[in-house]
Design a protein that fits this description.
InterPro entries: Alpha/beta_knot_MTases (IPR029028), MRM1 (IPR047182), MRM1_MeTrfase_dom (IPR047261), SpoU_MeTrfase (IPR001537), tRNA_m1G_MTases_N (IPR029026)
GO molecular function: RNA binding; rRNA (guanine) methyltransferase activity
Largest sheet: 7 strands, mixed
Distance between the termini: 80 Å
CATH class of the largest domain: Alpha Beta
Number of strands: 10
Protein name: tRNA/rRNA methyltransferase SpoU type domain-containing protein
CATH superfamily of the largest domain: SPOUT methyltransferase, trefoil knot domain
Keywords: Methyltransferase, rRNA processing, S-adenosyl-L-methionine, Transferase
Family: Belongs to the class IV-like SAM-binding methyltransferase superfamily. RNA methyltransferase TrmH family.
Length: 283
């Protein structure tokens, strides 16, 4: 049956000729279409103003939906409670992506977020790539499976979410270890957590989602996060360079790669420490 229909379609396209192909080229914005273009509704990206309380027992987190037109409601809906998989121990992890202009990078972030188990991705309405067909294709379909949100006022969104109990981690360069601390570097850990606006490092086994609902902020490809957003972070998180000496000036990772590594590490369940025996305590 499919073969018969395909043959009929082939005869129709033969009759239309180059005019048909030009129309297809225009409809697909000049991208490869192989003779088929599907018209679909826009990707649902509800506008929100804040992240609200989390329930581990119910495995849900809340959002406050911003005002929308009647047409936008038909696409985005008005859902204010979203489910996530707590596995009985963790709080949700939300990615906030700011200033990423490359649609391919944005799509790659969504793909990694879905694969690794990140619970949602938030982007601002300005100064960041849109969820276009390019981003959706780069996501390999993940952009249609992981919840996506947009915010009009990033600083306001982060401030309100913080007051609702969410803790904000900013992806940034690693602060130098305190010279006088006497602390030894832990080679096993490539991820370094520190207190924002400080050089104080957190323990290497720190697990954000085991302690609080977490927002991980990722910044622009070249310049990183804006100062106005960095100032709202409770903590910073960075990835150690794998080389002792950087000979060619490669001092950072692609933003989608960094988002993947940090998300993976943040979602790892802490290893329970064995209880100390009396002998170990005494000797």
């Amino acid at each position: 049956m499919a073969r018969v229909r395909a043959l009929k379609l082939f005869h129709i396209t033969e009759e239309v000729g180059d005019e048909y192909l030009r129309a297809m080229d225009k409809a697909s914005s000049g991208r490869p279409h192989n003779g088929l273009v599907l018209e679909s509704s826009p990707l649902p990206v509800p506008p929100i103003t804040e992240l609200k309380a989390v329930s581990i027992s119910d495995e849900t987190f809340g959002v406050t939906v911003d005002s929308q037109s009647a047409e936008d409601v038909l696409v985005n809906g008005k859902q204010e409670t979203y489910s996530y998989k707590s596995a009985g121990w963790r709080q949700p992890l939300i990615l906030y992506v700011d200033g990423v202009l490359d649609e391919g990078n944005l799509g790659a972030i969504a793909r990694s977020a879905y694969f690794l188990g990140v619970d949602a991705v938030v982007t601002p309405t300005r100064q960041t790539a849109p969820w276009s067909h390019i981003a959706v294709k780069a996501s390999a379909g993940a952009a249609e499976a992981v919840p996506l949100f947009k915010v009009g006022e990033p600083a306001d969104f982060l401030g309100k979410s913080s007051r609702a109990g969410w803790r904000i981690y900013a992806s940034d360069a690693i602060p130098p270890p305190p010279v006088t601390s006497g602390e030894k570097e832990e080679p096993s850990s490539k991820i370094v957590y520190s207190v924002a606006r400080s050089t104080k490092r957190l323990p290497s086994d720190h697990c954000p989602v085991a302690e609080h609902p977490t927002i991980l902020m990722m910044g622009a490809e070249g310049t990183g996060l804006r100062d106005s957003l960095l100032n709202l972070a409770h903590y910073k998180v960075g990835i150690k360079h794998g080389r002792e000496v950087d000979e060619i000036g490669v001092d950072s990772l692609n933003v989608s790669v960094a988002a993947s590594i940090l998300s993976y590490e943040m979602l790892q369940k802490p290893i329970a420490k064995a209880a100390s025996t009396p002998e170990e305590v005494l000797f």
